[in-house]
Each structure stands twice: as structure tokens, then as C-alpha cells.
């Protein structure tokens, strides 16, 4: 009977030893896998910067321009608020919106830079790698009775660093995707020399109107064709070299309108192009809508509108 219990006890210790050895191997393999994953993610992070840096210069230039434009809008809004009651609360609200917009632009630049695209996410992966290496060498750090508890903690901390770094990497990739999609294009506005969209001319009297076209976008306009469409009641006079006159057909956006067409080869940012049109207004005294269509090489068709009011 004593020999039987001795044999069973020996079997029990052998099984427990196998279980412990299997558990140690599984934990060790998990730490090795985490360390390998960390190295791969650091490599991906560095490769990711090669993509982000191609957009960094453009985004830096555009963000500075956007910041300056936002400050100009704030300055104009501030002048209007100074004439209103309860202006302090409105000014505080406007300041918060400006600060928020500028913070968003600054964050986008940071995420595309070396510090944001590489150092920030890679620091989490490297931290996870260090913790995993410490876990692999658990024998040196903890005595045998506490090894399992200690190594479980190292695995949890290493995973936490990986999750945080992976989230940062996704944010950087999102910033790169946003920069890739936000292709700078020209943006146009039209107005008369007095900066309004309405001009007054006398009926039965020939007149010359000037139209201003401003490129307020983020890229230079190329090969622009501008169509200023006048209702059939208007008579447009020829002008050598300045523009062409074209009668719109039935299948156009403005049937039977008279289109005054002129071209702009290159239209730089914040540059205003002026053109003069000689015409005879109709006898009818009322406002007339003047559609303006602009076709440009890199952007879609831009539809704008002016108003000419015929007065006595």
C-alpha cells in the first residue's frame, strides 16, 4: 500500500511539472510574439513616415495660409461684433472657435511630421518591446514563487503599450488619408469693382461694366474659361481681343442667353482678374440675374451669379 501511494504521488508531481513547463513555454512564446510584433510595428511606423512626408510641405504651406485666412475672418467678425450689444460674450465665443480651428490645423501638421508620425507611435511600441524583453528574463527579476504573477503583469503592460501605439498609428494614417484627399484647388468669386454683386445701370443708355474674378482658393487656376451669361434682352457689343460673344442654344444651361466668353491662362492665388463688357440694357426697369460659369483645368464647373439692376 505504501508503495502504491508513493508511485501515485510521483505521478502527480510529474504531471504538475509538465503542466508548469507547458505554461512556462506558452508564456515565453507569447512574450516572444509580442516582441516580434513590436519590431514589425516600429518598421511599419518608419515606412509610414515616407508617405506622410510627401504631404508635409504642402500641408504646412496650406495650413499657414488657412490660419492666416482664419485670423482675417476673425478680425472682420470682431469689427462687426464691436457694434453689437453683449459683444463680450460673442467675442469670447469667436475666440474659442478661432483657437479650435488653429489647433486642428496645428495638430494635422504635427501628425504628418517626424515627431507625430514616427516618434509618438514608435515610443509606445518600443515601450512594449522593453516590457516584453523584461518578461522574457523574468527569472532574473522575480524569485520562482512569484514568476507567474509577474510575467502575467508584463504581458498585460506590453499589450497596453501596443494598443495605445496602434491607436496613434491609426490616427496618423487618418491624417495622411485626409491630406491625400484634400487636394488644393482654385476657388473663385465674382463681384463688381465696388465689391458688391449688384450693379445699377440706366436703361436705354449704353454702358461699360467691369467684372472682377478673384481666385481665393489654395492653388493656381489654369486654362480658365469664363462665361458671363446675359438675358436675351441685353445687347452686347463686340470687343476686339477682350472677349468673344456666343448665343446659347436650347440644350445649354441658359437657353437663348448671350454668353460673353473670355479666357485666363494662369490665375494666381489671391489675384483679381478684371474684364470690361460693353452693353446696352433693356427698357424694362428691374433686376436681372447674370449667371457666371467658370471652367478650370483642375476643378469642377463653378456656378456663380451677379445682378444688374436697370434703373430709370
Could you explain the architecture of this structure?
The chain is α+β, with helices and mostly antiparallel strands and 312 residues long. The protein has 2 domains: 2-181; 188-311, Immunoglobulin-like (Sandwich), CATH 2.60.40.10. 54% of the residues lie in helices and 23% in strands. The chain is built from 5 helices and 10 strands, in the order H-H-H-H-H-E-E-E-E-E-E-E-E-E-E. The strands form 2 sheets. A 6-stranded mixed beta sheet has the order 2-10-9-4-7-6, with no helix packed on it. A 4-stranded antiparallel beta sheet has the order 1-3-8-5, with no helix packed on it. Strand 9 and strand 10 form a beta hairpin. Helix 1 (2-81) crosses helix 2 (87-112) and helix 3 runs antiparallel to helix 5 (147-181). The longest helix is centred in the first third of the chain and has 80 residues, at 2-81. The radius of gyration is 35 Å and the shape is elongated. The chain starts with a helix and ends with a strand. Mean pLDDT is 79; it is low at 4-23.
Largest beta sheet, briefly? Answer: 6 strands, mixed
Low-confidence stretches: 4-23
- Over all CA atoms, what is the radius of gyration? 35 Å
Order of helices and strands: HHHHHEEEEEEEEEE
Strand content: 15-25%
Mean pLDDT: 79
Strand order of the largest sheet: 2-10-9-4-7-6
Alpha-beta content class: alpha+beta
The number of domains is: 2
What overall form do the CA principal axes indicate? Answer: elongated
Distance between the termini: 128 Å
Give the strand tally.
Answer: 10
Number of helices: 5
Specify the helix fraction band: 40-55%
